[in-house]
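Long-time lurker, first post.

We've been arguing in lab meeting about whether guanosine-5'-triphosphate would sit comfortably in this protein at all. Half the group thinks yes, half thinks no, and nobody has a model to point at. So I'm putting the question to the forum: if I give you the sequence and the SMILES, can you give me back a predicted structure of the complex? Inputs are below. Any interpretation is welcome too.
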Amino acid sequence: MPNDNGGKGPRTVALVGPYGSGKTTLLESILFATGAVQRKGSISAKNTVGDSSTEARARQMSVEINCAAAPYLDQTFTFLDCPGSIEFLQDTLNAVIGADAVVVVVEPEAAKVQMLKPYLKRLDDLGIPHLLFVNKIDKATGPVEDLLNLLQEASEKPLLLRQIPTTKNGIVTGFVDLALERAFVYREHAPSEVIEIVDKDSEKSARYAMLEKLADFDETLMEELLSDVEPGRDRVFDDLRTDMAKGLLVPVLLGSAEKDNGVRRLLKALRHEAPNVAECAKRLGIASADTTALVLKTVYSTGGKLSLVRILTGSLKDGAGLHNAEGTDSRIGGLFALKGAAQVKLTEAANGETVALGRMEGVATGDFLSSAKIAPPRPAIERLTPVYRLAIEAADRKDEVKITAAIAKLREEDPSVGFEQSAELHQMVLAGQGEIHLKVAIEKMMSRYGLKINTVPVRVPYKETIRKSTSVRGRHKRQSGGHGQFGDVVLEIKPLPRGTGFEFHDEIVGGVVPKQWIPSVEKGVVDYLKSGPLGFPVVDVSVTLNDGSYHTVDSSDAAFQTAARIGMQEGMPNCSPVLLEPIMHVSIHVPSGATADVNSVVSGRRGKILGFDSRDGWKGWDTVEAEMPLVEIGNLIIELRSLTQGVGTYEMKFDHLAELSGKVADQIVAAAKAEKEAAKDA
Ligand SMILES: Nc1nc2c(ncn2[C@@H]2O[C@H](COP(=O)(O)OP(=O)(O)OP(=O)(O)O)[C@@H](O)[C@H]2O)c(=O)[nH]1
Ligand SMILES: [Mg+2]
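Top reply:
Settle the argument with this. Predicted structure of the protein with guanosine-5'-triphosphate, as tokens:
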């Protein structure tokens, strides 16, 4: 391969998988095994390379990607330790496309297998070569074949068991590598020791099963198997490499990151079988003689903005100019190798390396950067839809502008944080992937920019309407010194069908209200409708102006506006006003085992099930369609996740407004009134 230093060019590998499966520990073990760190850190001691941020350490879980390079033999591997919590998935989605291969770290526990699907599904869809590393093998119970069958359900691609465990008294003590045909016994925190294969029959049948799967994609191998010819080792390794690169098969390896077992085997498999940067560039559609880099992540560190990039074609030098797809020119202001939070300054970086670039203003995550005048268009990256919302307030009003600036930076780092300054709700609303996601985002803003931010629930945009008609006179007459004020209108107020909005009709005959004041009447009505008798914006009403009178000197725009407002104020309370609450159409996606539970979640939240079906493209999952009041959706995601080990999710869109009366409505109206009074007094 060109640019690949005889097949030994730099590789970038992402560690992905469900939360707590051991990715950060695996990175630590890899760094230790390769000598990149002298002392192995641990999650409990809060000193790992992977969980470098205060926010990650405090929670003992990864909340963003960390990057670390490890030289292994004559090759450099850069690992991206991805957060497992589904709330931080966006970071993984942004970066993973720039990796040559992904190690999906899983636990050998049947109950946790369904947690894999959101990762494997996306890797399959994106065509990113990946393998499974069954971690925590020190805690495994039960036959590996059973586990493999369960894992297979989560993967669309066939899994290929590369190793089988060897056990003593039910505890895994080592493994047989089926490609090498060698047995190893684990030694704690040291390389495994090669031993004689003890159970030759098990090894032979497991190897045969592996070869059969490889033969599905290799006719010669199939013929060899059929005629009992022992395939050459090179053929087996070639097939392993090609089949993983093409995404035909997903190899499965075993180990324990905690005890440093199986980690060197994993590195060897990556060394020999992971595709290289040229293949990654090809997958991304990059074929260029120019330098091209993909921005995997953006961080604002104490030293300013850093853009983590994978160099797909060509190489980089500090100070070089690069352009994005819009042709914006940015000069590299510092080139760094990262090891968690630590930065090592470089003067240049080779093809295939993953490095951080300083001060690339105008550059965003997902940009291709090119030495040519215009970079290729941005690759498609899935953008997660928000499932949780929080309103924020500056503890000190002076900080409001600073907060908006901090949010802009935060959203550059994490585009899955949505932000809206809602005029309707009079709130700053953050939208994201869950409570922890938003709490971490807020903590970051507070600590980095010295802000104090309070969180409050997001208001519900209630509306109100009327159920009866009325006719009312609005008269405004004031005599004071010179000019007086005079306006007089007769309004007919009528309810309209739901969703019609507001209508204004002019039925004045004979100019009893002169033409030029008619828009003033409408203005007065519209102004009143901003807050009806219950205190909420009024919808679905028709107002007809059908009579009135005027005064040649004292009538004015303002006087007719006031007259209309007075009329509305008097008339509306007689029209049987009623509260309207937003009802959303919700599509809930869960593993099929949880579908029945979802039904009770929906009915417990005043929802209505519309139907359910298998989830499009997600084997073993269902989608439940339902209608549910918006106010009931506030923490829906939390309940869905607790039913589904974190993988359940939903999307929603506004459907309609529904009348709400009785005690609940009275409470809402009273609360809104109290809030308004409090705001007046403040
Ligand atoms: N027994 C055992 N425990 C392990 C092993 N690897 C990791 N752990 C433990 O599993 C827990 C989670 O480990 P992490 O490395 O933080 O897992 P992670 O996948 O990075 O977690 P997130 O980033 O939050 O998704 C920690 O308590 C580790 O000590 C292992 O091989 N065996
Ligand atoms: Mg982690």
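For your lab meeting: The domain at 581-664 is CATH 3.30.70.240 (Alpha-Beta Plaits). The mean pLDDT is 94. Whichever side wins, do check it experimentally.
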